[in-house]
Design a protein that fits this description.
The chain has helices at 6-34, 42-64, 77-86, 90-93, 108-125, 160-172; strands at residues 72-76, 96-98, 103-107, 130-137, 140-147, 175-181, 184-190. The chain is of the alpha+beta class. It has two domains: 6-64; 70-190, 2-Layer Sandwich (Heat Shock Protein 90), CATH 3.30.565.10. Strands 2-4-5-7-6 form a five-stranded mixed sheet. Strands 1-3 form a two-stranded antiparallel sheet. The longest helix has 29 residues, at 6-34.
Length: 197
């Protein structure tokens, strides 16, 4: 039996991250709903949901703790864009435009998770379309996630998802900044190294 390649491990990690992300929201909803359930089987249902939540937390912790250098590979940004786009709901796909190309050497799973989270955050908290573009300056690649007018008056601070993205970016040597204004929002992810086109 042959050992799995780094590429197959990266794809497996990508799928696991997607499963963990997709399960988090419905599980939270189920846990909230279960608090109002009474009668036969209610305690067993709540205990089962709490076990699922614990397992999901363990999975997400393990995925976050993977060493970035172990999975460093040449990442095709156009392919990464297609993967993110295909994972969105159809209603969200109509609002998102990803205009990325070229390649960068980094952890494909971590970069996927950062960009996906930034896109979902922009979809959730801003009006109109979300556009992901890139610029090159001083031998660095900057990925920009632009959203429209913000849906709330909150223009400062980091939510849990953005904190996770910032930590992942830091682990990869990237710099992540968020600029939120009433008229627009923008996330900037700046790479540490020269990107070959």
């Amino acid at each position: 039996m042959t050992a799995p390649s780094k590429s197959s491990l990266a794809k497996l990690g990508l799928r696991a991250a997607g499963v963990a992300h997709d399960m988090a929201h419905p599980l939270s909803t189920a846990l909230l709903a279960a608090q109002n359930v009474d009668g036969k089987g209610a305690a067993q249902l709540k205990a089962s949901l709490r076990r699922m939540e614990k397992l999901l937390q363990i999975l997400r912790t393990e995925l976050r703790s993977e060493p970035a250098k172990a999975l460093t590979t040449s990442v095709d940004l156009a392919e990464l864009s297609r993967d993110i786009f295909s994972g969105l709901k159809l209603s969200d796909q109509k609002r998102v435009r990803l205009k990325l190309k070229g390649k960068v050497k980094t952890d494909a799973v971590a970069l996927y998770r950062i960009l996906e989270n930034l896109v979902l955050n922009a979809l959730r908290h801003s009006e109109g379309d979300v556009e992901v573009t890139q610029t090159h300056k001083a031998n660095q690649l900057t990925l920009l996630v632009n959203g429209g007018a913000t849906k709330s008056k909150r223009t400062k601070g980091w939510g849990v998802g953005l904190l996770s993205s910032r930590d992942l970016a830091k682990r990869l040597g990237y710099a992540l900044t968020i600029d939120i204004k009433p008229s627009r929002s923008q996330a900037r992810l700046v790479s540490p190294k020269l990107v070959k086109q």
